[in-house]
Each structure stands twice: as structure tokens, then as C-alpha cells.
């Protein structure tokens, strides 16, 4: 019975360690992955490109970056605030989240890559 309890405890401990390490977001990798986004977005300075800058995106209402006027009505009227969950949904498939978006990016299928980019954006 004691061995059985030990094996169960060990198994649960290993699963906990694997899950925590597997899903830990990596901002440094997110910065590398963000290079694809740089064509349209700036995360280093509050300077707009084709798309709005992403400096301070966390906690900001969607469609509200000062000085950017090219938001779609869907985004301006969405009422959402950018947080991890909303950014993850957006990065998965922007058109599915808001069909009227002007963003052409088709989405990022890798949950790990999305988490890394989100972690990177948290530092901006």
C-alpha cells in the first residue's frame, strides 16, 4: 500500500513539473517570433505603422491607441480590453474573433508561440 501511494505521488509530481515547464511562456522567444509582426506593428516605441503600435497593449481597450485612426468598426466597438485571453484568441485567428477586422494576418496555430508573443508584449 505504501509503495502504491509513493508511485501515485511520484506520477502526479512528474506531471506537475512537466506541465509547469511545458507551458511557461518565454518572452525572449516571443521577441524573436514578433519579427513577423514588425512589418505592421511596433512594440518598441509608440509609433504606428500599418497597424497600431503595441506598446502598453495590456489593459488597453481595443481600438484606442492614441493617434491611430485606421481601426475597423468591429474593433473600435468591441468593448474588449487586451489581456492574455483576448490576445490569445486574437492571435489564434483575428478574422474569426472579429470578421470585420482589417488585419490580414491569418493567425498563429501554435499555442506555445502565442504564449511567447503575449509574454513578450507584457514587457512593452
Describe what you observe in this structure.
The protein has helices at 2-22, 27-33, 73-76, 84-92, 94-97, 111-122. It is an all-alpha fold. It has one domain: Cytochrome c-like domain (Cytochrome Bc1 Complex, Chain D, domain 2, Orthogonal Bundle). Helix 2 (27-33) crosses helix 6. The chain is globular and about 65 Å long. The termini are far apart. The mean pLDDT is 88.
CATH structural architecture = Orthogonal Bundle
Question: What is the highest CATH level, the class?
Answer: Mainly Alpha
What series of H and E elements makes up the topology? HHHHHH
Count of discrete alpha- or pi-helical segments spanning 4 or more residues = 6
CATH superfamily: Cytochrome c-like domain
List the helices and strands and how they pair.
Elements: H1 2-22, H2 27-33, H3 73-76, H4 84-92, H5 94-97, H6 111-122
Helix pairs in contact: 2-6, 4-6
Amino acid at each position: 500500500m505504501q509503495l502504491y501511494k509513493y508511485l501515485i505521488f511520484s506520477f502526479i509530481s512528474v506531471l506537475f513539473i512537466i506541465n509547469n515547464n511545458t507551458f511557461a511562456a518565454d518572452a525572449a522567444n516571443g521577441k524573436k517570433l514578433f519579427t513577423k509582426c514588425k512589418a505592421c506593428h511596433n512594440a518598441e516605441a509608440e509609433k504606428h505603422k500599418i497597424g497600431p503600435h503595441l506598446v502598453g497593449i495590456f489593459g488597453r481597450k481595443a481600438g484606442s491607441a492614441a493617434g491611430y485612426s485606421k481601426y475597423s468598426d468591429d474593433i473600435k466597438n468591441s468593448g474588449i480590453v487586451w489581456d492574455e485571453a483576448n490576445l490569445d484568441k486574437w492571435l489564434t485567428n483575428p478574422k474569426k474573433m472579429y470578421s470585420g477586422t482589417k488585419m490580414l494576418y491569418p493567425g498563429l496555430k501554435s499555442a506555445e508561440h502565442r504564449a511567447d508573443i503575449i509574454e513578450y508584449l507584457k514587457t512593452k
